[in-house]
């Protein structure tokens, strides 16, 4: 994945993407045990009008560097990379506040545990809720930060439901 | 709960903690290995038996 992240930094250096962050299962893997997944979700902030948003320049740039599109992803050094526009305020904040890491000498950004949990709760599929539960069991998220994010994005009811259904709190 | 089951569950919890504590690049290598093995199984089995999940529907606006 080191080479994959190197290519994503190239996209940033070329001005094709603004800030970016690893999310999804590979983001969660930073904090939890390894999670089986097929692709690498890269959330990206695009400046400019969302109405003219297109991923074509990204695909063209990567294609010229030898990375072919495969379905809804681009295969970059063995990883199917999905570029996901961070359009909602929650996703945008998650990308902006992502933590900077060093992946074997390559700089990268990973969403915080609190943002990954909030996004999982909002997305709400079975496996997202299971992941949120794993975050809770591992005590990987800061409670105050998590509740601050949930409140700011109007997701307190989603949390309450999750708490009632999955957490054995008195 | 029997002592045997109790011990098994404790060991399982410890193993998960050990995995969580691994450096990120090492965890990524484990994911890559799991993915390669899953592909191998997928190619050996009729595709009808593979569970296909819907992609997540991220909120686009808020």
Word description of this protein:
The complex is a heterodimer of chains A (170) and B (62). With 170 residues, chain A is of the alpha+beta class. Helices cover 48% and strands 18% of the residues of chain A. Chain A has 2 domains: 2-111; 115-166, no CATH class. In chain A, the strands form 2 sheets. A 5-stranded mixed beta sheet of chain A has the order 1-2-5-4-3. In chain A, a hairpin with a 2-residue loop joins strand 4 (73-76) and strand 5. In chain A, helix 5 (113-123) packs antiparallel against helix 6 (126-137) and helix 5 crosses helix 7. The N and C termini of chain A lie far apart (43 Å). With 62 residues, chain B is mostly helical. Chain B is built from 2 helices and no strands. In chain B, 63% of the residues lie in helices and 0% in strands. In chain B, 6% of the residues are buried. Chain B has helices at residues 3-20, 24-44.
List keywords for this structure.
heterodimer, A: 170 residues, alpha+beta, five-stranded mixed sheet, 8 helices, 7 strands, 48% helix, 18% strand, elongated, B: 62 residues, mainly alpha, extended
Report the sheet-strand fraction of chain A. 15-25%
Number of helices of chain B: 2
What would you call the shape of chain B?
extended
Q: What share of the residues of chain B does DSSP label as strand, in percent?
A: under 5%
The structure class of chain A reads: alpha+beta
In total, how many domains does the architecture of chain A comprise?
A: 2
Number of DSSP-assigned strands of chain B = 0
Give me the number of helical elements of chain A: 8
**Helical residue percent band of chain B:** 55-70%
Q: What integer value in Å does the Rg of chain B equal?
A: 18 Å
Widest β-sheet, arrangement of strands of chain A: 1-2-5-4-3
User: Mind describing the biggest β-sheet of chain A?
Assistant: 5 strands, mixed
The outline of chain A comes out as elongated
């Amino acid at each position: 994945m080191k080479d994959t992240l190197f290519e994503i930094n190239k996209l940033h250096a070329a001005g094709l993407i603004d800030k970016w962050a690893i999310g999804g299962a590979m983001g969660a893997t930073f904090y939890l045990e390894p999670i089986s997944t097929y692709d690498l979700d890269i959330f990206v902030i695009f400046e400019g009008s969302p109405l003219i948003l297109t991923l074509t320049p990204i695909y063209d740039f990567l294609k010229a560097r030898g990375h072919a599109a495969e379905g809804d992803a681009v295969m970059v050094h063995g990883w199917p990379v999905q570029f996901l526009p961070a359009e909602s305020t929650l996703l945008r904040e998650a990308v902006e506040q992502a933590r900077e890491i060093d992946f074997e000498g390559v700089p990268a950004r990973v969403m915080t545990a609190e943002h990954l949990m909030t996004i999982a709760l909002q997305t709400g599929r079975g496996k997202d809720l299971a992941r949120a539960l794993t975050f809770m069991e591992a005590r990987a998220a800061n409670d105050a930060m998590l509740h601050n994010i949930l409140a700011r994005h109007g997701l307190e009811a989603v949390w309450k439901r999750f708490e009632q259904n999955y957490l054995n709190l008195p | 709960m029997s002592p045997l089951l109790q011990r098994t569950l404790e060991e399982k919890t410890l193993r998960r903690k050990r995995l969580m504590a691994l450096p990120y690049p090492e965890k990524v290598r484990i994911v890559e290995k799991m993915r390669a093995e899953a592909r191998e199984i997928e190619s050996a089995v009729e595709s009808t038996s593979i569970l296909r999940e819907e992609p997540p529907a991220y909120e686009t606006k808020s």
